Amino acid sequence: MKPSHVKTLLAGIAGGFAMNIAMLLTFRFIGFGINADGILLDPSIQSSKLIAVWTEIEPLPLVVSRPAPIIFGIILFGIVHAYLYRWLSPAWPTGIVRRSLSFALLVFLMTFLFWEFFTPFNQFGEPVGLIAIELCFWAIIALADGFTISTIMERGASGKIW
Predict the structure, then answer these.
(1) Run means of pLDDT, 10 residues per run, the chain, 162 residues
(2) Domain map of the chain by residue range?
(3) Gap between the Cα atoms of 132 and 39, Å rounded
(4) Do 53 and 61 contact (CB within 8 A), yes or no?
């Protein structure tokens, strides 16, 4: 039986919040640092082009200058993710962990891996070592999204954790 639209919307909103929190903890606090002193903005190892985009070239990215639309947009992506989960998860093995990992892997491969290849690597010349760190951050974000959505969507379904 398919989850209701209300459950799907709630799962998506929660997934969007989980992604926002995971981004805050990874990219903001660890990657960029509180005072733009994080590893991803270290001029001794980072591409000067990428640093300029994030800190100098106007207009600065919205996530830096006016984060509210980005935070809201990520919540909307969470809702889209919940509907994708609702559509695809019946084909996956049952259990919260299996479905969470399946969905997180799908999001990671289809979205975040492509993003890192096409933008930081291709457009900004970011070093591969920093891209590897960012991919770890994206994996955490995908897992937060996947586990949040799966936990809510599977509540009361099979009862299986694994």
Answers:
(1) 92 98 97 92 96 96 96 98 97 94 98 97 97 98 98 78 66
(2) 5-154
(3) 12
(4) yes
Q: Exposed/middle/buried for 47, CB within 10 Å: 0-12, 13-18, 19+?
A: middle
> What span, in angstroms and rounded, lies between the C-alpha atoms of 105 and 144?
11
| The two structure tokens encoding residue 94 | 């049952």
Distance CA 131, CA 83 (A): 29
- pLDDT score of 155: 85
The CA distance from 116 to 27, in Å, is 13
pLDDT at 1: 73
**Phi/psi at 44 (5° precision):** -75, -15
Q: How many residues are present in the chain?
A: 162
At 112 the three-state DSSP class reads helix
> 59-72 in b/e burial notation, b at 16+ Cβ within 10 A?
eeeebeeeeeebbe
